[in-house]
Amino acid sequence: MQHAQSRDGTTIAFDRLGQGPPIILVGGAFSYRAFPKLVQLAELLAGQFTVINYDRRGRGDSGDTAPYAVQREIEDLQALIGAVGGSASVWGWSSGGALALRAAAHGLEVEKLAVYEVPFMVDDSGHLPPADFATRLDEVTAADDRSGAVKLYMTQGMGIPSIIVTLMRRSPFWSKLKATAHTLPYDWAALGDTMAGKPLSATEWAVVTVPTLVMAGEKSPAQLRNGAQALADVLPDAQHRVLARQSHNVSMKALAAALAEFFGSEKQSM
User: Fold this and answer.
1) Quick one: what percent of the chain has pLDDT higher than 90?
2) Distance from CA of residue 130 to its chain's centroid?
3) Which of 4, 61, 218, 243 can pair with 79 through a Cys bridge, CB separation 3.0 to 4.6 Å?
4) Of 5, 2, 63, 52, whose CA–CA distance to 27 is shortest?
5) CB 209 within 8 A of CB 106
């Protein structure tokens, strides 16, 4: 484990694997550095790249400093980019993809960017969170009701049926979800107003000018696939790719193959 210090003094913990052009992995809601899929992805990419797998602030071995702002997490990424030499490519999964996009928009030295199923809800073809969701999420996390926060985020935020979430509570994995539940408002803040069923603002995202790979899974809900297509359409330099036989719970082997092809292309090594 290594550490980088963010601008506000917060310590960000990370693992560095492999050698080659650097890639920083940005997990989404509930994820952390030891999350099995992130560990697997880092190991799969380490044969060709220097992979930075980190704990987002407030999670795992990273610190946290109040008050929270998305800008602080952008500064965390800036510190990690500095730790690997001043520029890096970035991959983001789900809400972590929204954070990665905002970091690129802010002007960080991102060589290439790849995102998988950023949950931008650009139509009303599926579940949409209630208008007061952010307020309710803040209230339940402020009360330190971590199980309540997980349930609220999954049912009202993600649209997972309550019966499935109830069954999940009986799983040993529930305790791992609770461990990061206090940071769920961070993910919601990174998503901003993109979950309201409205078209994406071309003006807002046009500032993300780095080459970007926007991915979705063939078996994912239409709403997620539509969001990926809409994002690719508004980015100035984007490729859109649908991974065959994949869902939001994507196979890391399939994902790693797509990322290695994109990040390892000639433009990356120039």
Assistant:
1) 95
2) 22
3) 4
4) 52
5) no
Res. 267: pLDDT tops 80: no
The position carrying tokens 């992805």 is: 41
Q: Cα–Cα distances in Å, from 175 out to 138, 160, 179?
A: 20, 18, 6
Going by C-alpha positions, the residue among 113, 115, 111, 116 that lies closest to residue 21 is 111
Q: Does domain 2-120+198-269 have CATH number 3.40.50.1820?
A: yes
CB atoms within 10 A of CB 3: 14
For residue 83, which amino acid is it? A
Q: Is residue 2 classed as helix, strand or coil in its secondary structure? A: strand
Quick one: how far is CA 54 from the chain centroid? 12
Walk across the sheet containing 50-54 and list its strands: 2-5, 11-17, 50-54, 22-26, 88-93, 110-116, 212-217, 238-243
For residues 104 and 92, the answer to whether their CB atoms sit within 8 Å is no
Taking the C-alpha atoms of residue 3 and residue 24, their distance in angstroms, rounded to an integer, is 14
Residue type, 251: S
Q: Where in the chain is the domain with CATH 3.40.50.1820?
A: 2-120+198-269
pLDDT tens-digit profile of 199-250? Answer: 999 999 999 999 999 999 999 999 999 999 999 999 999 999 999 999 999 9
Q: SS3 for 94?
A: coil
Q: Is 215 helix (H, G, I), strand (E, B) or coil?
A: strand
Do residues 210 and 111 touch, judged by C-beta distance below 8 A? Answer: yes
Interatomic CA distance for residues 163 and 166, integer angstroms: 5
pLDDT at 265: 76
CA distance 74 to 189: 12
∠ Cα 83 257 62 (to 5°): 30
Q: Which of 94, 114, 95 is nearest to 104 (CA)?
A: 114
Q: In the Cβ-directed half-sphere of 20, how many Cα atoms lie within 13 Å?
A: 18
Place of tokens 């994406």: 200
